[in-house]
Amino acid sequence: MKVAVIGSSHGGFEAVRGVLKDFPDADIEWYEKGDFVSFLSCGIELYLQNVVKNVNSVSYATPEGMEKLGVNVHINTEITDVDSEAHTLTALNVNDGKESTEKYDKLILSVGANPFQLPVPGKELGNIYAMRGRDWAIKLKEAEVTPGINNVTVVGCGYIGIEAAESFAKAGKNVTLVDTGKSILPTYLDPEFTKILEAEFKKHGVKLALNQSVKEYVGDDDENVSSVISTNGDQWDADLIIETAGIRPATDWLKGKVDLNEKGMIKTDEYQRTNQPDIFAIGDSTEVTFAPTGKKQIIALATNARRQGRSAAMNLNDEKRKTTEVSGSSGLHVFDYKFASTGFKDVTAEKAGVDVESVFVVDTAVPPFVHDDKLNAEVYFKLTFDPKTREVEGAQIMSKRDVTANINTISLAIQQHMTVDDLAYADFFFQPSFDRPWNIMNIAAQKAQDKLDHK
């Protein structure tokens, strides 16, 4: 059996691993448009902040290593067409422009997504960067030390924008973070958390330009960007723009080949199958099932892509594994604060038209008698639940101490349809240098019980 995998990031890599495991005799053809296999854009921040020294190490695999495992790796090879009836692919060598026709028995599409470029005047100017892929990582690293790049504007305040803003602030640049929303990280955190993080950004010199968007990029005589004009009339200097205003599925070439939805996402079933026989799709160009609602939506996370990749590989011949529903669990840091969230927040539930209630708890990480600022930082925790069924629907946690692993427990609680009553007295260990006798999840769930029982 010849299995073709298009794309080499999280999903594509996991699919190849899965095929190697489940079909050791398969002929695996792995296609990558770029000249580097399985670069992980989630590691760019670590590279920019010198935690990771070598950009080439931000990868799952090398062509040489995968070839030794029996995988036929094709770098600098763009797949431009697929014929599902003939089971063939059109492969373009990006170096010499030559095309070839390649056969497959099973095809796994892990085509990913592209950064969205703002359609504003001046978008063609120089020094307007994205933050996705190895090439951009190298350019961004160079920009950190380039004379003349002092004022940096980051467009978009999701995870990638937050990472870019912090990285360039730590590099000594004057950073402005602009977004249409009224707060940073609106998809991930409620205001109780974002207010603290916004103050943290301001403390480190990052200027926040919220409730506005970019109206125009203005250039200088060198044809590079020199300033930004916003939709509310503000203008500020900018030697570098980093656009992190979302992504779009890289599926234009698949129109008419497999079914796409109105957003260009590839439609798949619970086994990652498309509407075409023997073609599967995974990763950022597909939707995943959100556990709190049971409905599919866009949740572009590496963990989801890898989970889908494993499912696609297992299901090549038979229906062996449905892809697990997810809660959208994720985490990040903003300078000293570490945070994570999962499931519904008040802000996302309101947008989805879902009725939820929440409780907010502030506690210390360990008992008060532990007089150590690093050990005993404040912990902020918010638990969200369904007021009718009492089921846990989401949570958010933040502290200067890393307590983010609690969110994994909440994610499991959501998937298993646990109630606040289940969580209120759930068994968690206690040791004074690690935790409190009542874990903060217990405390929040008990508070939720009181709220529901005394309506």
From TrEMBL:
Q: What is its EC number?
A: 1.11.1.1
Q: Name one GO molecular function term.
A: NADH peroxidase activity
Record domain Pyridine nucleotide-disulphide oxidoreductase dimerisation: where: 333-435
Can you give the residue ranges of the FAD/NAD(P)-binding domain?
A: 1-309
Per UniProt, the keywords (alphabetical) are: FAD, Flavoprotein, Oxidation, Oxidoreductase, Peroxidase, Redox-active center
Tell me which Gene3D superfamilies the record gives. 3.30.390.30, FAD/NAD(P)-binding domain
PANTHER family attached to this UniProt entry? NAD(P)H SULFUR OXIDOREDUCTASE (COA-DEPENDENT), PYRIDINE NUCLEOTIDE-DISULFIDE OXIDOREDUCTASE DOMAIN-CONTAINING
Q: Which family does it belong to?
A: Belongs to the class-III pyridine nucleotide-disulfide oxidoreductase family.
Q: What is this protein called?
A: NADH peroxidase Npx
Q: Which organism is it from?
A: Fructilactobacillus fructivorans
